[in-house]
Input
Amino acid sequence: MVFRTTLKNIRRSPYQAFAAILIMTLTFLVISFFTFILVGASSIVNYFESKPTLTAFFKNEAKEEEIKAMEESIKATDKVASVKFVSKKEALQIYREQNKDDPLLLDLVTEDILPASLEISAVKIEDLSDIHDTLKGYPIVSEIIYQKDIVSALTSWTNALRKIGIAIIAILALVSIFIMGVITGVKISQKKEDIEIMKLIGASSWYIRWPFILEGVFYGVVGAFLGWGIASLSLWYSGPYLEFFLKGIPIFPISFIFLLGLLGMELIIAVVLGAFSSFAAVLRYLK
Output
């Protein structure tokens, strides 16, 4: 009976139902897009963390024992994920591979010219600065290559996106609650006479409230499905272009399990959001 009343209320006010579903769809569309952006940004950061993001070159007079001791010391820290030693011979092989189409450059460089080095990956990208400072303290190190600006910019952008996303989602959620409350209040006002009659014949307060609350839940769930569906389709269509742009960074394909998990999370939020906004309106208008 309660569900039948809820569906009847929705059918009788299609424009209000459309407005409620529209605002909920917009809210969950933004939630989905920002989730995709944040997951993608985190994957890019993790990708750079797993790569040799810092290279220390040794002086020609550096002894093998000194290099080995330094390597063990660096490995012992909890900030380093991996350390790879590149000998002069391996450096020459890498150089030849990179310049195989230019014979002149190959003839100019010998094994003695190229320095040995350590390629270091950090556990967290924020730790690279501390590792860089530690390496500077070793006298056998002649030069350190560390793309500090790129790393800092990447981390800053990720943190900024997270804060902006949370702020926009919070604002949209509040707007959704407000609009849903207004719509529910209007519907209660329109059914005031019916509610009075129901009270006179003995209907309980919760019997009267439940259709309005379930209506809010319905709008939230439909909006979550639509918002998630539009965002997922957009990601699917733009996937090949983004994959080409992010060449070498393994973000795609997006796991279907992840998308289902996102949908489940959004449905839970939708139920809470729809029920809370309608319940707040019911408490205000049905006293």
